[in-house]
Amino acid sequence: DVQLQASGGGLVQPGGSLRLSCAASGLLFGDYTIGWFRQAPGKEREVVSCISSSGNTLYPDSVKGRFTTSRDNAKDTVYLQMSSLIPEDTAVYYCAADLIPCTVVTGSKSVGMHYWGKGTQVTVSS
């Protein structure tokens, strides 16, 4: 079975930092594009970051300069380092994998991904 598990969420104060991890198993991890998505209650799911198999990254304007995604293929893990967090970042964060390029992942609000992991809650509040 292919499994993706996001972890590292929690409660953090505005301005704080948090690092999320996405651990994968059951697939050739190094071949896959990994995207981070988030969804808040009453809002559409949105892409937060994307990292390609070669390590190139794309971010939406809402998080650019604050979030950084990276991957360690030897550990089958992708990270999302979040800093300068604001309440608007509060959401359930999911990681997902597909063979499509990041330009496709970030170019559509409703893009589908082949594999999805369980989400982790991030709450930014004082």
The amount of helix comes to under 10%
- Span between N and C termini? 40 Å
Main sheet properties:
7 strands, mixed
Order of helices and strands: EEEEEEEEEHEE
Radius of gyration: 13 Å
**Unreliable stretches covering 5 or more consecutive residues:** none
Q: Which structural class should the secondary elements be placed in? A: mainly beta
Mean pLDDT: 95
What is the number of helical segments per DSSP (H or I, 4+ residues)? 1
| Apparent shape | globular
Total beta strand runs: 11
Beta-strand share of residues: over 45%
Secondary-structure topology with pairs:
Layout: E1 3-7, E2 10-12, E3 18-25, E4 33-39, E5 46-51, E6 57-58, E7 67-72, E8 77-82, E9 91-98, H1 102-106, E10 115-116, E11 120-124
Parallel strand pairs: 2-11
Antiparallel strand pairs: 1-3, 3-8, 4-5, 4-9, 5-6, 7-8, 9-10, 9-11
Give an overview of the whole structure.
- By secondary structure, this protein is mainly beta.
- Helices cover 4% and strands 46% of the residues.
- It has one helix and eleven strands, in the order βββββββββαββ.
- It has one helix at 102-106; strands at 3-7, 10-12, 18-25, 33-39, 46-51, 57-58, 67-72, 77-82, 91-98, 115-116, 120-124.
- Strands 2, 4, 5, 6, 9, 10 and 11 form a seven-stranded mixed β-sheet that branches.
- It is globular.
- The relative contact order is 0.31.
